[in-house]
Design a protein that fits this description.
Elements (H helix, E strand, L loop, with lengths): L1 H24 L11 H18 L7 H32 L1 H23 L11 H12 L21 H13 L3 H34 L9 H5 L2 H8 L4 H9 L5 E4 L4 H8 L2 H4 L4 E4 L2 H5 L31 E2 L5 E2 L6 H7 L4 H4 L1 H15 L7 E3 L2 E3 L3 H17 L3 H21 L3 H21 L1 H5 L8 E3 L7 H24 L6 H29 L1 H10 L4 H14 L1 H23 L13 H18 L4 E3 L7 H29 L2 H30 L18 H4 L1 H10 L6 E3 L11 H6 L8 H7 L8 H10 L3 H10 L2 E6 L1 H6 L5 H6 L1 E6 L2 E5 L2
Parallel strand pairs: 9-10
Antiparallel strand pairs: 1-2, 3-4, 5-6, 7-8, 10-12, 11-12
Helix pairs in contact: 1-2, 1-3, 2-3, 2-6, 4-7, 5-6, 5-7, 6-7, 7-9, 7-16, 7-26, 7-27, 9-27, 10-28, 14-28, 16-17, 16-18, 17-18, 17-19, 18-19, 18-26, 21-25, 21-27, 21-28, 22-23, 22-25, 25-26, 26-27, 27-28, 33-34
């Protein structure tokens, strides 16, 4: 509780400290950036501190943190002095917004902290928690930046690690250990994302109502209606949980008593057999057709509503089933926010969430007329002021440092919002392409320069773009993943059509078809280039599929026709979204319009919708090349980004329609919304008790945010040794090396000291495998050799200071401990663990 309160007080104080700066930076938003102040404050404080430590102007200590905070506070104080009267008036007028925001943040932060306190363990199985704790501890123990890689001694971290810098900053400032900071940061990100989404929808609704002539302060329906945004973003889930409940209850199965056939039993007894099965067999044509992993076999008896299979909640992130042409299954990750928080991995895609929302707010601020001004460049003129330009570059560069994939959608959204502003001023034309390039290229260059120390040392597993011939998504699986957002989006598009809002249907249709043709052409061009440039690789692929090139393409296209439902669904959303989007920006004079105009908010939401659909559509034809070799990561990253965009759009549509529909239309729509949201809430309702063991503990004091506390029971000797080593001077540790999701590298993970080699597969994802050299074999030789000269040479080669011998080392290697006892001094010895220090 003390750790939680210290973080709550610190982040709240940071938000208030930064608010005068944010107030001046977001002039077009009704909330003036108040709901984003905490996230922006953390970003700019983290940037200043990281830059100071990277150039060794400051150390990675409290002094450096205070210096960074002083710089941020000084900038904000200057803004306060110049706008204090206006700011004070805003605070008086928007008291209700402030109160709701503060209550929402406290509830969201506290709720997720309570969830983590009931399930705090940083287990290795099925997640990345050890990697994340290792990064946090390594950053805490690195005097300057870049921080050392805890799993590859002699190297710096080669990963987008900005989120872990922020985590370590808060941990160091509040004297919180790394494993506690891991759970607190996950909870904090949940809280920041809740108020960030709330603020975005609030600003959209205020703009929408003002465009319709409704003058309303924050005390109206807007402040309450905006709560739909965090609900759709963070809580509402995909439909896997709903189908898990149906499956567990036996719906869709015909149960046959012994001695009867499935058909005769089903037709003679009717649906009653589904709810009251007896001993016998079970039959279903639905569940094998639906093809959800582990739901094709009959449910166990007795039937119930609550899913109870081991790890059933994990399947919600593995809905999409990819098979090659031979029927071999390939794993695909389709995470959504609630699953990520339930899993508890503090991975970059989660850490970046509130800052993605900050980027969307920047796009909205531009779209609503903020940052007007000009910047003269030698090759053209930007229609934006210098403050806005630098702010955009700061956030975009920060996103690349947080989760590099996210810069793609964030930069696209910001640049397109800027282009739409120019469309309103000058109409469509080739000049808009020039506007996009004039803003986009300098922004990318500036962001790169601002975060140059990161990019210089960054290495990525991404290696270009590959064509996706074999793996189209089935329509059924697409709807299970996206149904809870697609239904509100379809309803809102129909609502716009029924209200005869201006739309350019021809432009929308041809634009969507153009995108489709471009993606299809890109797929074939990439396939052709691969066949010509990498014939050996392509031949291996064709042989693995037992087909020549013509048969491979023909069978792949036939599969696309078989799975056409997903493509039709996406086009059914994209065509009207683009039609209304172009219709909203093609008629500048409202008096000449033949249909009711859009509100600016509606136009921006259509842009969010179109971009979100494109993110879902892209992996149907291409994917980014990485160490996995198929589209597992592309789906993962793009779908998560799309969920952020589409959840905001769906929340806007629901709020607007509930406030504007009347009579039977309102009742019908309310029933639909309740049904859809209810289906999307089945997953959190059932999965939370499952993951937390129904929030039961033997004693309340057993609830803890310490992700390492479980080690005291599972490996008590190791736990005590690690606690002792945290007080030692830093140095390279020798311990077992091995594959991922194991207990190898436990010492480096929980002490922050670098080890010679940790999880080798993860290091191979972050940098060239060749850099590992003979490390794994050398560590084995260090432990097993009888020759001290050989051991000494390995110790010198990797500058090893501590040698750790525990049960894991003994079970992994045939340890010859006698040589360590003869030549080295034990600094710790308890039970099965001995730690030696090299003089």
């Amino acid at each position: 509780m003390i750790s939680f309160l210290s973080w709550y007080i610190l982040i709240t104080a940071l938000g208030w400290l930064t608010f005068p700066l944010v107030y001046c930076l977001f002039p077009a938003l009704a909330d003036r950036g108040y709901t984003l102040a905490r996230a922006f404050g953390l970003l700019i404080w983290g940037y200043v501190f990281w830059l100071l430590a990277s150039f060794q102007i400051a150390q990675n200590d409290i002094g450096g943190l205070l210096l960074g905070l002083l710089i941020v506070g000084g900038s904000s104080a200057w803004m306060f002095i110049n706008s204090r009267t206006e700011l004070a008036g805003w605070l008086r007028e928007y008291r209700k917004l402030i109160v709701i925001t503060e209550i929402l943040f406290l509830i969201a932060f506290g709720f997720m902290a309570f969830v983590r306190a009931n399930n705090p363990e940083t287990f290795t199985a099925g997640g990345e928690k050890w990697m994340e704790v290792a990064f946090i501890n390594a950053i805490l123990h690195s005097p300057t930046f870049p921080p050392h890689d805890p799993w590859l001694s002699g190297y710096a971290i080669s990963y987008y690690y900005f989120g872990y810098v922020m985590t370590a900053m808060l941990a160091k400032f509040t004297a919180v250990p790394g494993p506690v900071a891991h759970n607190l940061m996950l909870s904090l990100i949940f809280g920041l994302s809740a108020i960030g989404a709330y603020g975005l929808l609030y600003n959209l609704l205020v703009s929408h109502r003002r465009s319709k002539g409704v003058v309303e302060k924050s005390e109206g329906v807007t402040a309450v209606g905006a709560l739909f945004a965090p609900l759709f973003l963070l809580i509402v889930s995909n439909l896997q949980g709903f189908f898990e409940a149906l499956y567990r209850r036996g719906i869709g199965w015909a149960f046959t008593p012994s001695g009867e056939t499935a058909a005769s039993s089903f037709w003679s007894k009717g649906i009653g057999w589904i709810f009251n099965p007896e001993e016998g067999t079970a039959f279903s044509s639905f569940w094998p057709w639906l093809d959800l992993r582990e739901l094709t076999n009959p449910p166990t008896q007795p039937l119930q509503w609550a899913p109870d299979q081991y790890f059933w909640w994990w399947r919600a992130s593995r809905v999409i089933q990819d098979y090659d042409l031979n029927g071999t299954w390939h794993e695909v990750i389709d995470e959504f926010p609630f699953f990520s928080y339930l899993l508890g991995d503090l991975h970059p895609h989660v850490l970046a969430m509130p800052f993605n929302l900050l980027a969307i707010a920047i796009a909205l601020n531009i779209f609503l007329g903020g940052w007007r001004g000009t910047i003269d460049l030698f090759f053209g003129q930007l229609r934006i002021n210098k403050v806005g330009f630098v702010t955009i570059a700061l956030v975009l560069g920060g996103l690349a440092f947080l989760n590099t994939w996210d810069i793609l959608f964030a930069a696209t959204l910001i640049v397109l919002s800027y282009a739409l502003v120019q469309v309103r001023a000058a109409g469509w034309g080739w000049g808009r392409l020039e506007d996009i390039l004039l803003l986009g290229i300098p922004l990318v260059v500036t962001a790169f320069v601002m975060y140059l120390p990161f990019f210089v040392g960054f290495d990525s597993q991404a290696g270009g773009v590959l064509p996706n011939f074999m793996y189209p998504t089935r329509g059924a699986h697409l709807w299970i993943v996206w149904g809870t957002l697609f239904v509100p989006l379809f309803a809102y598009l129909i609502y716009l059509w029924r209200n005869r809002v201006s739309a350019s249907w021809r432009v929308g249709l041809f634009s969507a078809l153009g995108v489709l043709i471009a993606l299809l052409a890109t797929m074939f061009v990439l396939g052709f280039l691969a066949l010509k440039l990498k014939p050996d690789l392509m031949q291996m692929l064709l042989e693995s599929q037992q087909r020549d090139a013509n048969a491979f393409i023909a069978d792949s296209m036939l599969r696309r026709l078989e799975y056409i439902g997903s493509l039709l669904t996406l086009l059914a959303l994209l065509v009207p979204a683009l039609a209304f989007l172009f219709g909203s920006s093609s008629q500048n004079d409202i008096s000449e319009m033949q249909a009711p105009p859009h509100s600016p908010s509606s136009t921006f939401v259509l842009l969010l919708t179109a971009l979100g659909i494109l993110l879902v559509l892209g992996p149907e034809f291409v994917y980014l090349r990485d160490n996995f070799g198929w589209r597992i990561n592309t789906i993962f990253k793009f779908y998560f980004q799309a969920w952020i965009l589409l959840s905001l759009a769906a929340a806007f549509g629901v709020t607007v329609m509930l406030s504007e529909l009347r009579r039977l239309a309102f009742v019908f729509y309310a029933v639909v919304v309740v049904a859809v949201m209810g289906a999307g809430l089945v997953y959190p309702i059932f999965s939370l008790p499952e993951k937390t063991d129904n929030f039961r503990v033997e004693r309340p004091e057993q609830r803890t945010l310490d992700g390492a506390a479980y080690l005291a029971n599972m490996m008590p000797d190791d736990y005590q040794a690690i606690q002792f080593m945290q007080q030692l001077d830093p140095g390279v540790v020798a311990e077992t090396a091995g594959g991922g999701y194991s207990e190898h590298a436990r010492v480096a993970t929980f002490t922050g000291m670098p080890t010679v080699l940790g999880w080798d597969n993860h290091e191979g994802q972050w940098r060239d495998f060749a850099l590992q050299g003979t490390r794994e074999a050398d560590i084995e030789m260090l432990y097993t050799t009888n020759d001290w000269a050989t051991a000494q040479e390995i110790i010198n080669r990797y500058n090893i200071r501590y040698i750790y011998v525990g049960n894991l080392e003994r079970s992994t290697y045939n340890v010859n401990q006698e040589k360590f006892n003869r030549f080295l001094k034990p600094v710790f010895q308890q039970g099965s663990v001995t730690v030696y220090e090299v003089p």
